[in-house]
């Protein structure tokens, strides 16, 4: 590694001293800790039992009792860390049982490596580093990415990176190496990206005289491999990104690849195949294991703008072999994304204009979530800061501590490259030579709301830009100090001029930030100071790291830190699902809401009223006392006041100039959005200087599972009286069919955590004539059996079998699922059948008949206990039930109490229950709950599994 001069390094954190081999280690400063006090001693610890189940079948996924965590950690965070990150066989003495052991295992390796390689000026500085890192981790101030927790300090390879970029050349040997390298990466639970543009197109000849297969054909093999491995079937699915340049002759086939497969899914689904995500027949569909992106150039986008032609070029010679209409090709790109959310778009010239190492090679691809963009055959380790930890009680931002923590994290992340192992030799060589880092943050959306800023506002964007600029400015300034202490990255000398040019671009972008209030101003002032120091120290020392920052999805680690929002995302919704210590769960209004209301000047009584309204409705529209101009502060990614797609794009554009890499984020679009809307977003992304962009239009994909928490479908059908059927004398029973219009009630229920729907339809004279039951997902065996059972019951009722006969047969039947219900009249049920027929009896049989069967409502049981006559309670209700069922119109029918909400098992399902629609998110393969968006990936709140590489 090139050595720098021996002059003193200019640092903010203090003077440096001579280290090993004449270098100067860093002087560390305390941020949160005190001399002589171990950071663990400032934390209140408690023991908990972790039992994680799959709520759909009740099976136990994981169990470990007596684990030790800080008292302030949520149940979710404890469950996820215990099940995913603790090492050792469960039930053995080698199994970790305390967060202290986990943090000691990881931080111990970082500190010892720093000592060994001269990072610290003295032993005291090493101790400060050790204590500060431990304090920050156990107090959820920041977190490393998952591979660090999986691997560091264990007997496994010390892999610390989650994101990898591979390369493929136009040879069969290289293509087969790609398959192998991807497989190794997926097996380790990580993800990779690759650009296939070097592979000859299907319109070009091979040296043997035949026609080349083209990159899309080779994608089939890689897709099948990814689908088979599924990350070893453990913590996450295989995650991959496939990129193709817009001037590749096969680009149109690439663009339409996944859209055509989506048509296949529809056809197979309509033919009766199980095409839900995770269904047994979905595996026959190709290209589903990768995110696809088209890499567009400025030349192409200008041709789109002007309506001109664009040339597609041969891969070997670079000559134009065909021309296309640029606008037409761009339209096809937007059409495919509108149909199935793929492909995304990456802006090649923008990416490479901010590239610090162009002399080594161009940036051609990204990781699966699009935030890491660097050289081929490289990797990046990530860490994210919990921004809400720096918001003081008076709504000021703790700039000083944020600066010092960013220094600490960059130092630790650079140390990790020194001891890290890598999945391939080529990746190891590139990463050690360029030392790419990815510091980022989470909880931006919560921070903005808590400080009274709308996400889609000038104030919100100004605050986000200032924080991002400060973070990256500190990161590169610390990188320059590290270069003075332990040397520049190997490729720096070759790329020094380009690297310094990009640093100046960052600093110039910082000068363009326009602050709007005191909070922005203080952060921006410090950012300006940090960039000035960065340029000065960097010019003298060079830099230790080719890249420093990006914005990752922060899925699992966001849950580990108990963040309300992930990465750069806004709040998903104003209400969330929260697990409780000791079991159970509850719906809560996000803690940022009352904090924001207080910041906006509302009194405590007003705050309580608004929060109560939000808890009931899930949004702020018409909330009592809330001023209209404050509605936008509470806009979320989903719900009554969803942030507009361009609002997300504008936020990305605000922070992009201050990131070495890019941003993991999907721009959600409403179902009614048009292809023209997609074109506009992709075009504006280029104009605004983004590096990458992906969209998702609600309900555009077929293979999305229906949520059992979906809001009840209300049937409001007016009933016309039908004449009684003419009597017919026959030897057998006669079937009396229901009229085409009939009164019906829909009951949503939960038994032992499993939910279902029951629709009961009546004759005009109030006799039950039809029952339909919805259990299990569409196309499943259970759903089919219940459909058949429903038809059998309905036909028998229409042939005159009394309802009480069915009630006698099926009540008290015992089988799983059984247990608690969400029905106040029937608190316990021995089976689904037991519950269903008890509910039908309560709704459709008179009191006398039910009394003989021993079936009573909660009100009737209360009357019995008080010595009253339950029959007296039912006289008026029976008359009313009969009159309501008879006909339409009915004068002012008695208002019924709202049905209790179905049990939600994640925040996504809770949001669905408020919105009355199904969210487009996959079900977790581990615990069965519906996942929530995290950047361009998904994360499970129940167990922390992700669909990406973060």
UniProtKB/TrEMBL annotation:
Keywords: Cobalamin, Cobalt, Disulfide bond, DNA synthesis, Nucleotide-binding, Oxidoreductase. It holds the Pfam family TSCPD. It catalyses: a 2'-deoxyribonucleoside 5'-diphosphate + [thioredoxin]-disulfide + H2O = a ribonucleoside 5'-diphosphate + [thioredoxin]-dithiol. Its EC number is 1.17.4.1. Residues 50-140 form the Ribonucleotide reductase class II vitamin B12-dependent N-terminal domain. Its cofactor is adenosylcob(III)alamin. Residues 1-24, 866-915 are annotated as: Disordered. Gene3D superfamilies: 3.20.70.20. It is an enzyme of class 1 (oxidoreductase). Residues 740-842 form the TSCPD domain. InterPro entries: RdRp_reductase_class-2, RNR_2_N, RNR_lg_C, RNR_NrdJ/NrdZ, TSCPD_dom. Residues 161-696 form the Ribonucleotide reductase large subunit C-terminal domain. It comes from the Bacteria. Belongs to the ribonucleoside diphosphate reductase class-2 family. Catalyzes the reduction of ribonucleotides to deoxyribonucleotides. May function to provide a pool of deoxyribonucleotide precursors for DNA repair during oxygen limitation and/or for immediate growth after restoration of oxygen. This is Vitamin B12-dependent ribonucleotide reductase.
């Amino acid at each position: 590694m090139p050595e720098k001069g021996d002059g003193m390094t200019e640092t903010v954190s203090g003077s440096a001293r001579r280290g090993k081999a004449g270098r100067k280690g860093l002087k560390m400063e305390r941020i949160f800790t005190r001399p002589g006090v171990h950071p663990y001693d400032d934390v209140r610890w408690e023991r908990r039992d972790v039992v994680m189940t799959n709520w759909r079948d009740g099976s136990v996924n994981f169990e470990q009792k007596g684990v030790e965590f800080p008292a302030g950690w949520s149940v979710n965070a404890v469950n996820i860390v215990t099940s995913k990150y603790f090492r050792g066989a469960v039930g053995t003495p080698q199994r970790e049982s305390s967060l202290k052991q986990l943090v000691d295992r990881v931080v111990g390796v970082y500190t010892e490596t720093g000592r060994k390689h001269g990072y610290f000026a003295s032993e005291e500085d090493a101790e400060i580093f050790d204590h500060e890192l431990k304090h920050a981790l156990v107090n959820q101030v920041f977190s490393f990415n998952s591979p660090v927790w999986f691997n560091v300090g264990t007997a496994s390879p010390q892999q610390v990176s989650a994101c990898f970029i591979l390369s493929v050349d136009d040879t069969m040997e290289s293509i087969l190496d790609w398959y192998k390298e991807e497989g190794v990466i997926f097996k380790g639970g990580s993800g990779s990206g690759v650009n296939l543009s070097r592979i000859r197109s299907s319109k070009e000849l091979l040296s043997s005289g035949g026609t080349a297969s083209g990159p899309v054909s080779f994608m089939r093999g890689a897709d099948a491999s990814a689908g088979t491995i599924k990350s070893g079937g453990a913590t996450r699915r295989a995650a991959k990104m496939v990129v193709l340049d817009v001037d590749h002759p096969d680009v149109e086939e690439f663009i339409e690849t996944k859209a055509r497969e989506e048509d296949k899914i529809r056809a197979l689904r309509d033919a009766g195949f199980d095409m839900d995500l995770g269904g047994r027949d979905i595996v026959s569909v190709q290209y589903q294991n990768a995110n696809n992106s088209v890499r567009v150039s400025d030349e192409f986008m200008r041709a789109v703008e002007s309506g001109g032609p664009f040339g597609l070029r041969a891969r070997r010679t670079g000559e134009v072999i065909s021309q296309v209409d640029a606008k037409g090709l761009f339209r096809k790109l937007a059409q495919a994304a509108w149909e199935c959310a793929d492909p995304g778009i990456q802006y090649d010239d923008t990416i490479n204009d901010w590239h610090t190492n162009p002399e080594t090679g161009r940036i051609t691809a990204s990781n699966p979530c699009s935030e890491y963009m660097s050289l081929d055959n490289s990797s990046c380790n990530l860490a994210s800061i919990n921004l809400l930890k720096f918001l003081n009680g008076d709504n000021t931002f703790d700039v000083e501590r944020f600066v010092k923590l960013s220094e600490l994290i960059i130092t630790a992340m650079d140390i990790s490259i020194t001891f890290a192992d890598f999945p391939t030799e080529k990746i190891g060589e590139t990463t050690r030579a360029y030392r790419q880092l990815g510091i980022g943050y989470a909880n931006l959306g919560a921070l903005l709301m808590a400080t009274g800023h709308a996400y889609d506002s000038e104030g919100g964007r100004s605050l986000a830009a200032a924080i991002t600029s400060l973070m990256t400015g500190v990161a590169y300034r610390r990188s320059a100090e590290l270069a003075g202490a332990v040397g520049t990255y190997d490729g720096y000398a070759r790329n020094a001029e380009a690297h310094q040019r990009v640093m100046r671009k960052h600093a110039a972008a910082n000068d363009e930030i326009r602050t709007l209030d005191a909070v922005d101003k203080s952060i921006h002032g410090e950012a300006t100071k940090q960039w000035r120091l960065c340029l000065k120290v960097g010019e003298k020392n060079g830099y230790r790291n080719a890249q420093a920052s990006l914005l990752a999805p922060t899925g699992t680690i966001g849950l580990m830190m108990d963040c309300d929002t992930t990465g750069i995302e806004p709040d998903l919704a104003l209400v969330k699902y929260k697990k409780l210590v000791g079991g159970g769960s509850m719906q809560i209004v996000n803690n940022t809401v009352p904090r924001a209301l207080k910041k906006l000047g509302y009194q405590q009584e007003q705050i309580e009223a608004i929060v109560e309204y939000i808890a009931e409705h899930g949004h702020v529209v018409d909330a009592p006392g809330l001023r209209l101009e404050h509605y936008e502060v509470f806009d979320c990614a989903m719900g009554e006041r969803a942030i507009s797609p361009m609002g997300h794009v504008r936020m990305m554009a605000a922070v992009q100039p201050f990131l070495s890499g890019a941003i993991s984020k999907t721009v959600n679009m409403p179902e009614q959005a048009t292809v023209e809307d997609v074109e506009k977003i992709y075009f504006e992304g280029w104009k605004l200087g983004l590096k990458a962009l992906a969209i998702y239009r609600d309900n555009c994909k077929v293979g999305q599972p229906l949520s059992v928490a979906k809001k009840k479908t209300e049937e409001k059908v007016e009933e016309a009286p039908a004449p009684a059927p003419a009597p017919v004398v026959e030897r057998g029973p006669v079937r009396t069919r229901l009229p085409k219009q009939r009164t019906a009630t829909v009951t949503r229920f939960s038994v032992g955590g499993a939910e279902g729907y029951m629709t009961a339809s009546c004759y005009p004279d109030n006799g039950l004539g039809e029952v339909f039951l919805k259990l299990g997902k569409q196309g499943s065996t259970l759903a089919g059996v219940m459909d058949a059972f429903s038809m059998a019951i309905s036909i028998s009722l229409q042939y005159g079998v009394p309802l009480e006969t069915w009630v006698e047969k099926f009540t008290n039947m015992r089988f799983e699922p059984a247990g608690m219900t969400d029905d106040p009249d029937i608190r316990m049920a021995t089976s689904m059948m037991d519950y269903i027929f008890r509910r039908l009896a309560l709704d459709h049989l008179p009191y006398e008949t039910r009394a003989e069967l021993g079936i009573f409502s909660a009100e009737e049981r209360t009357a019995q206990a008080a010595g009253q006559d339950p029959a007296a309670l039912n006289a008026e209700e029976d008359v009313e039930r009969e009159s309501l069922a008879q006909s339409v119109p009915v004068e002012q029918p008695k208002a019924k109490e709202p049905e209790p909400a179905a049990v939600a098992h994640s925040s996504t399902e809770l949001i669905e229950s408020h919105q009355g629609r199904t969210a487009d998110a996959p079900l977790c393969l581990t615990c069965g709950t519906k996942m929530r968006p995290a950047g361009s990936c998904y994360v499970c709140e129940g167990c922390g599994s992700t669909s990406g590489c973060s």
